[in-house]
Amino acid sequence: MAKIAIYPGSFDPITNGHLDIIKRIKFLFDKIVIAVNDNPLKSFLFTASERVEMIKEVLNDSSGIEVESFRGLLVRYAEKRGARFIVRGLRALSDFEYEFQMDLMNRKLNPQIETVYLMTRQSYSYLSSSIIKEIIKLGGDTPSLIPDSVKKRLQEKFN
Ligand code: COA
């Protein structure tokens, strides 16, 4: 049976921290579905289709990787895609509590789906999409933290 993993998130926008996780999980699974959360109750800077487009733009080698947006429960989406794994990156201790709660809840909703955690590389451990948005909005630079195409999109958005 093919090992399919969902890598979910807001990706508003994708950063090099996310890309590092994608690069590392490529060798662990047969197929990866990058699932962009399109929660209508959350306000995002980029629309779901813009976020999907930006991810597709920055994937160097997209073999075995699909990118799409989803609404509703993550485990229902994973079931629909035939995925038995969910991947999450852990940055700091502060991520643990939230991830633990999500893991327990997702497990209750579907005990067959396993969540796998990867420690974020040290150079990205302080990174977040929000902090990147703030820096670019205020005219600062973010060397090696986001791809150039993402930086360009952010600058266009804020101009
Ligand atoms: N390196 C650097 N930063 C990273 C990172 C990494 N490897 N991985 C995540 N981050 C950052 C993100 O940029 C983001 O920053 P922001 O908060 O400033 O935007 C932050 O960490 C959180 O990221 P993300 O992984 O996108 O989590 P999220 O909380 O936005 O989304 C979902 C989590 C989509 C998986 C979750 O809300 C979900 O499953 N929703 C569907 C509904 C559902 O099923 N709910 C019940 C769950 S029990």
Summarize the structure.
The chain is of the alpha/beta class and 159 residues long. Helix content is 41%, strand content 19%. The protein has a single domain, classed as Rossmann fold (3-Layer(aba) Sandwich).
Give your account of this protein's structure.
- The protein is an alpha/beta fold and 159 residues long.
- It has a single domain, classed as HUPs (Rossmann fold), CATH 3.40.50.620.
- Helices cover 41% and strands 19% of the residues.
- The chain contains 6 helices and 5 strands, in the order E-H-E-H-E-H-E-H-E-H-H.
- It has a 5-stranded parallel beta sheet with strand order 3-2-1-4-5, sandwiched between helices.
- The longest helix is centred in the middle third of the chain and has 17 residues.
- It is globular, with a radius of gyration of 15 Å.
- 30% of the residues are buried.
- The chain binds coenzyme A.
- The site of coenzyme A has 22 residues, from strand 1, helix 1, helix 4 and helix 5.
Topology:
Blueprint: E1 4-9, H1 16-25, E2 31-37, H2 48-58, E3 65-70, H3 74-80, E4 85-90, H4 93-109, E5 114-119, H5 129-137, H6 148-158
Parallel strand pairs: 1-2, 1-4, 2-3, 4-5
The protein binds coenzyme A (COA).
Kindly list the characteristics that best describe this protein.
159 residues; alpha/beta; Rossmann fold; five-stranded parallel sheet; 6 helices; globular; binds coenzyme A
